[in-house]
Amino acid sequence: MSNIVRIILSTLLLIGTVALFIYGQWGWGILGIFVTILAFVTVFFNENMLLAQFYLRKENMAKAGQWLNRITHYEKQLIRAQHGYYHLLLGLMESQKSPMQSEKYFKKALSLGLHMGHNVALAKLSLAGIAMAKRNKREATKYLQEAKRADKNKLLADQIKMMKDQMGMMDRQQQIRYR
Questions:
Q1: Quick one: which of 31, 47, 126, 167 is 20 to 30 A from 18 by CA?
Q2: Helix or strand or coil: residue 16?
Q3: Could you tell me the pTM of the whole model?
Q4: How many angstroms separate the CA atoms of 118 and 108, rounded?
Q5: What is the DSSP letter of 172?
Q6: Is 112 buried (19+), middle (13-18) or exposed (0-12) by CB count in 10 A?
Q7: Cα–Cα distance between 62 and 141 in angstroms, integer?
């Protein structure tokens, strides 16, 4: 359902709730307030995205993919602030199947904008891993430094450190190969 329809529906529910209070139907009016709030919140937080995030946290990729696939036209169904997060979720889903193909989703998510620093750090860390898989050390180092800068609360500090250690091992393997 597009956001315009959600806004119209929320407005009609609000008018109906006010009418219930005017006519003295307090019980139904209070229930109407909760329904109106729920309808209004879905304008800003798409239920498909919320459920996909829930299943991603539970590591149930099949159900998360089902909920993400219900979003057919993300430009119409999501507000602009959620466009980047939609592509981030698609990238995380795709990275489970084929990591090299997920690069385009992470780059699109960063270009559309992610508002939370740890999400930016997650996208850059994923791009660093993809660059390492392509044996592009310079790009991987750049993405790791950007991820470290973006991770202000140190939520991904262990993963960043582990990725740096893997880069160091990659250098040692190349030195052994050339001897």
A1: 47
A2: helix
A3: 0.80
A4: 17
A5: H
A6: middle
A7: 33
Of 108, 142, 100, the residue nearest 125 (C-alpha): 142
Rounded distance, CA 112 to CA 134, Å? 24
Question: Is residue 96 within 8 Å of 68, Cβ to Cβ?
Answer: no
Position of tokens 């999400």? Answer: 119
- Give the type of residue at 69: N
Residue range 80-130, pLDDT digits in tens: 889 999 999 999 999 888 888 899 999 999 999 888 888 999 999 999 999
Helices (H), the chain: 3-22, 26-44, 47-57, 61-69, 74-77, 80-97, 103-112, 117-133, 137-150, 157-178
Are the CB atoms for 50 and 79 separated by under 8 Å?
no
| Site of tokens 């190349």 | 174
